[in-house]
Amino acid sequence: MKKHSARVAPLSACNSPVLTLTKVEGEDHIRDSVVGPTDTQAAGVVAGAESSSSKRKLHCCIRVTTVQVSKALWGVAMVMCVCCSWAGSTQLAKLTFKQFDAPFTLTWFATSWNSLFFPLYYIGHLCKSPERQTPRQRFRECSRFFGDDGLTPKVFFTKVAPFGLLWILTNYLYLQALRKINTTDASALFCCNKAFVFLLSWIVLRDRFMGVRIVAAILAIAGIVMMTYADGFHSHSVIGITLVVASASMSALYKVLFKMVLGSAKFGEAALFLSIVGSANFVFISFVPLILYFTHVEYIDSPGEIPWACFCGVAGLMFAFNVLLNFGVAITYPTLISLGIVLSVPVNAMVDLHTCEINFNTVRLIAVFIICLGFLMLLLPEDWDQCIIQLSTKLRKRDEPAEGSAEAGATTGLNWRGRARTSMSTFAH
To answer: Where are the transmembrane segments (predicted)?
Structure first.
């Protein structure tokens, strides 16, 4: 039980208002059940208990509402930051390739920045945690995520290296696609990874079947076909669309395999994992950009001509995007974070409309719309249909209790008939 509690520790901050409210309600029920020795004392005790109970409930409601409003405001800020970081990295990468056409070198450079995850997490640990640990102690504790023996060479090559390759493939294929198609199409098509995650989870992880998500997956596939048709099946556009779809597939495979092999991770464990991926990329993949340079595949005359400002800008924006995506759930709702990704599509469209020649024909607009619609449908919770039924039931019954309370003010017999009518109408519905 102790180990399970540690596993869900990151969500304790979100659940703390609910726990506090439950505790106060329990105390109120205990206080309401107090019985005094005389009727007068009992009346006084009951009145005092009801007064303190109402005050506590009001205080807790205000507290919960304040926390929810705070999370919603943080969510709005998070949506803007996710949208700007993802759209900004896409646009800046497109601009970088006009000066230095090196998608793999840019992928390697940006992935190496992941090594900063754990140091930044440790700084936050020193600022927030009451029990401060040394970097080695924190590293050993987070390494238990990989098993009782921690991070061993066997664990690295079996549980870390494959995810590092999937990470590099996801980013490399996406950057390669930006050389072929515009940023609007690329960002819209990448939203299909949500549908691929659902399909893989349904097949591999045996997740719950949901009809609305099947419809969303069909919309995503239809959007891909329509996007291909929008440019008349030209070779460049077909290759670019294929690369983005492959990138979205690698991203979905990464997420599903991570869930299947490693399960869920706490913030420190996720930061350590991403830092290991970035460090391993810097150490073991550095020879690939060198080979591409000497074979003139990704060649530039001198290192001084490399647009370092653009390189650092793309890497910094991608790093910020991954930080927000992985750790933003600590301060807001995950659904709001996902909205930032789909909102990057109209942002990229506005930029493309003013910076490049893009033909927003009817087919392209419909394709972008149905892909985004499918993405939003996949954000619906599993019990969305029950929530709608309960909400509609409450709306239908809103006027009935008011009529019953008005009749209850007359006599006891009228009150009984009002209740009977209410129960009969509820049964009829």
So the answer is: 72-93, 105-123, 156-174, 186-205, 212-230, 236-258, 270-294, 331-351, 363-380
